[in-house]
Amino acid sequence: MLQNGKIINSIFNFRRLIKTRRFIFMKKLTLLACSLFAFAAVAQAKEVAAPVTSSKEVVAEPVIIEEVVVAPVVENPWGFINLRAGWDFWSEYGNFNRHENYDTNLSKKTKDFGGELAIEAYKSWDYFDLGLGVAYQHHMKRKSTDNVSGAEFSSVPVYVTGRYDINYWDWAATPYIKANVGYSFNFNSKDVDGPDFSYGTKVDDGLYWAAGVGVQYEDFNVDILYGANYAKTKVSDGPDSMKFDNDYERVTLSVGYRFNIW
Could you say which residues form the signal peptide (predicted)? Predict the structure, then answer.
């Protein structure tokens, strides 16, 4: 009986020991869980309460792409045609001196209107234009001396013409130097008329030249040229005749308009 009581007592003590250790284990487990929960709560609180710091983000500046508009290149024209009208504001003829067969003098001075109409075609380079021209020229009348006048004529010169532009500074208006050289076809020679006589005349052809300066503005041009039509006039009185130099010299102011040739 006593031995059985010891065994029962031993079993009871063992069960108490197991319960005690289970209680201690559960208590430790509970404390560990509470500790983990508290740690997690503190960490979460720190994260929520952490001050917001400004982040320095690298923002790339926008790249501005400029659209390059290529303007069309305006090339110089191949050439141009110039229509020109001029007025002789000074002129004189060659001198016809008194001759033994012709008891008269002719004045060199002129009067009335003299002018020309011309058309010129040019080939253009950077600063130089070269071309051909033709003109109709109505020369002025002679002033009479002792009621004697005449021996005037008209001309149609065909000539080579050149212009050199003096525009190194891109001015709006372009100054230029101009020269014409050609051959003058002279015609319509007037008789030498006096109070009681009239001598027939005939004019020969000859050299033509002119030179001067001008200015071009857009399609308009103005120039002033000194020029001459060389001529010899034959004066006849029946079987008698003589020739004299009857050159026509003048200063001409011209206005023109150009048409580009592409």
Answer: 1-40
